[in-house]
């Protein structure tokens, strides 16, 4: 009789946890780093409360210019405010490398700030032959 | 002879200590909950961009409707021709009646707030203008 043998062949699957834990930790590190980069480009401010253009096929923004209420320009929050001349040099460098067009540039301006600096930035962009611009709004 | 159950069945049960992993997972969860800043939902307005270069540009820009955004009697206003509006609702009402094909040009002076100027772009979009151009204009 072979009843006993059937019993002894029972195999309990062992779940290998190590690669799963590896992947989980890699994902955690990835999201931590990605969140850090996203935070650097966007400065906390009160954007104009508008519904925006509701366009769904806009390209991803690779360069963000933050114009704060106090009249400062921030491109990378870890580096602080920069002057209009520095911004011009940065734009020149990016455009020369072909990394920047109006499709990939976003302007975030505080709604309570004066348009003076926004206008200066837009004049600068126009000098680089930007035919349009993207201005961020905060949807309700 | 007395065998214990696992030996008799030929099974090797892997004993995984999950407690440390759960500890770490919960610590990370708490870290993310505390450190997360909920970002507000954002959208974009995409006006065309032109720079006012005096008479030459003015001539070519005659056809579209021009909205001036500027200070008037120490308050920000929208000006279309001789009409002056202090509220965006008034501007929206007028924009709805205008022909849409020529487009609209928004000339914003330096002394108004960004929010007030952007409202003109938004209202032009809402009114159905496809060609919305922003012109930075010094006062």
Write up what this structure looks like:
The complex is a heterodimer of chains A (140) and B (139). Chain A is 40% helix and 14% strand. Chain A has 4 helices and 5 strands. Chain A has helices at residues 3-8, 18-41, 84-96, 115-127; strands at residues 63-67, 73-74, 81-82, 105-109, 134-138. In chain A, a hairpin with a 5-residue loop joins strand 1 (63-67) and strand 2 (73-74). The longest helix of chain A is centred in the N-terminal third of the chain and has 24 residues, at 18-41. The N and C termini of chain A lie far apart (76 Å). In chain B, helix 4 runs parallel beside helix 5. The longest helix of chain B has 17 residues, at 19-35. The termini of chain B are far apart. Chains A and B meet through helix 2, helix 4 and strand 5 of A and strand 1, strand 2 and helix 5 of B.
Tell me, what's the shape of chain B?
elongated
* Major beta sheet summary of chain B: 6 strands, mixed
Strand order of the largest sheet of chain B: 2-7-6-3-4-5
Mind telling me the C-alpha Rg of chain A?
Answer: 25 Å
Q: Quote the distance from N terminus to C terminus of chain B.
A: 103 Å
Q: Would you identify the regions of chain A where 5 or more consecutive residues have pLDDT less than 50?
A: none
Q: What are the secondary-structure elements of chain B, in order, as H or E?
A: HHEEHEEEHEHE
The order of strands across the largest sheet of chain A is: 3-2-1-4-5
CATH class of one domain in chain A: Alpha Beta
Give me the oligomer status.
heterodimer
Q: Segments of chain B where pLDDT lies below 50 for 5+ residues?
A: 55-59
**Biggest interface pair, counts:** A-B, 50 and 41 residues
Helix proportion range of chain A: 40-55%
CATH architecture of one domain in chain A: 2-Layer Sandwich
Q: Rg of chain B from C-alpha positions?
A: 32 Å
Q: Which secondary-structure class do the elements of chain B indicate? A: alpha/beta
Do you know the CATH topology of one domain in chain A?
Nucleotidyltransferase, domain 5
Helix-strand pattern of chain A = HHEEEHEHE
Proportion of beta-strand residues of chain A: 5-15%
């Amino acid at each position: 009789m072979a009843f006993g043998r059937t019993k002894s062949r029972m195999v309990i699957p062992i779940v290998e946890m190590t690669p799963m834990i590896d992947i989980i930790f890699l994902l955690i590190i990835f999201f931590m780093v990605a969140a850090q980069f996203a935070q650097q480009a966007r400065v906390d401010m009160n954007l104009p409360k508008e519904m925006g253009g509701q366009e769904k096929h806009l390209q991803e923004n690779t360069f963000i210019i933050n114009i704060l209420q106090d009249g400062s320009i921030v491109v990378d929050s870890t580096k602080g405010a920069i002057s209009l001349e520095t911004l011009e040099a940065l734009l020149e460098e990016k455009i020369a490398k072909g990394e920047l067009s109006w499709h990939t540039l976003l302007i975030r301006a505080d709604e309570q700030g004066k348009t003076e600096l926004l206008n200066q930035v837009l004049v600068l962009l126009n000098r680089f032959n930007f035919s349009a611009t993207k201005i961020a709004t905060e949807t309700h | 002879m007395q065998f214990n159950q696992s030996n008799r069945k030929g099974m090797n049960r892997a004993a995984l200590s999950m407690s440390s992993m759960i500890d770490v997972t919960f610590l990370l969860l708490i870290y993310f909950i505390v450190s997360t800043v909920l970002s507000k939902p954002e959208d974009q307005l995409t006006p065309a961009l032109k720079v006012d270069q005096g008479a030459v540009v003015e001539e070519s820009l005659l056809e579209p409707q021009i909205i001036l955004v500027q200070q008037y009697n120490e308050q920000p206003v929208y000006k279309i021709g001789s009409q002056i509006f202090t509220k965006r609702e008034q501007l929206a009402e007028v924009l709805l009646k205008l022909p849409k094909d020529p487009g609209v040009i928004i000339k914003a002076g330096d002394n108004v707030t960004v929010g007030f100027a952007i409202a003109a772009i938004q209202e032009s979009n809402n009114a159905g203008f496809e060609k919305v151009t922003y012109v930075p204009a010094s006062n």
